[in-house]
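Reference record
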Amino acid sequence: MPKMRAIDAAVHVLEREGVTTAFGVPGAAINPLYSALKARGSITHILARHVEGASHMAEGYTRAAAGNIGVCIGTSGPAGTDMITGLYSASADSIPILCITGQAPRARMHKEDFQAVDIQAIAKPVSKWATTVMEPAQVPRAFQQAFHLMRSGRPGPVLIDLPFDVQMAEIEFDPDTYEPLPVYKPKATRRQIEKAMAMLNDAQRPVIIAGGGIINADASDLLVQFAETTGVPVIPTLMGWGTIPDDHRLWAGMCGLQTSQRYGNATMLASDFALGIGNRWANRHTGSIEVYTKGRKFVHVDIEPTQIGRVFAPDYGIVSDAKAALELFVEVALEWREAGKLKDRSPWVAECTERKRTLLRKTNFENVPMKPQRVYQCMNNAFGKDTCYVTTIGLSQIAAAQFLHVYKPRNWINCGQAGPLGWTIPAALGVRAADPTRRIVALSGDYDFQFMIEELAVGAQFKLPYIHILVNNSYLGLIRQAQRGFQMDYCVGLAFDNVNSPEVGGYGVDHLKVVEGLGCKAIRVLKQEEIDPALEQAEKWMAQYGVPVVVEIILERVTNISMGTEIDNIVEFEELAKGKEDAPTAVALLD
């Protein structure tokens, strides 16, 4: 049996499990792993500027393509605690990432050694599994178990903590005979699917709620086939956006308190039955359960048994991987259509289409400084159907979900539940590392952008180009809007007179100087006529320099974006569209 250090065995396991890229920051307690990576030369390492940034890069890498698992590496102590936000974000959205930390030697653990912390206990609530490996011979099996757990059932992140002496100890391990463990995913039965189909077929106005589990399962094509076979409109969740193209006749818009369209909410309220697949009934999607469930029946399909009934009790629940369930849904639907058993849904679809055509928000504002609505209209015109958007939280994200269009799965990469500020830059870098060819457009408000701005240097160093749209109103806009209920505008302003950059006009931070200082390129836009030339320049710079390019768009200081307390009580702060000239890029009005 070959003998090697336990940490060398771990790298062999990473290779055999398909890992080709890792993100991290080296340190004394994890240097054995870095020595093993250097010796093997099989895994590309991207050096982050902050370990939280590395964890979000790993998230972006995983979310970019089916089968990917991002790896984040850090030393002992604060590196592990820096990873916690990434673990939380990944756990909340069912995203598998592997976080690896160094640890003090076993003899010095629990003795308040320098940078020694019980990271296993800290990480446990926000990970699928967290372990400190105390025996060298268990190292390769801990990594094997990690990949098995990340891929089985509801996907999620794992943290492996490795004491220094455990990494360095010699063990026996044969990498040539290593095989990954079989992945477990629950599967629906034919009888269960037939019961759900009977309930759907009995309904007069059914909808399908398409969640992020469909994207995780790489089953979007099956969803579209099922919707087309049954003629049932689809309401994607924020995490399921892209499961069906926005311009598909059965795309009904999104429902929710914030990230939704007027017609999406109206269609949900008009429905009498909802089939949820791979979704979790998030509160920003539902609002109160009383309003959301009134007058309709529900079937819930989810890979995680404890998710069914967690938010509310559906009329029927099925524990299944989304792809396994949709394969059977398509099979049964095709048989029933052939037998003439499916209802004609064309009148219901026509109603939904009319709502898409008429219940629109205005985007075609001429104001300078610009209103954000006009920015998204310009983005719709500038970016094609292959564009992958990356964003996190704030008014910028909410408005994006109301006005942008997504046409493919994994082209809306967003941390849905956790929403940590600063997520966008490192996540976009992770997506680029996973896919060197995709057109990536990241979107941030000024506060999200400033949170982890240092990670732009990673894009410059490792040649990871993408376009970053920075909409700047020099405010914590979403919090300012939430403070309206308290009749205050307190501690949310980011504007100040910058003595070094009077040209920013009181908006505070000179993002162009900061971006350029980090080795990237940037351009500032003040009015809509300048957006297209700025984007053309951005493309040239990316091709020439291979670095991220930031296009900063100066917005009016205060814009309130549509949102409310219930899906039937959304406040529209701006005037609504009266015709195509008011919303020229609304998906239902496009030629």
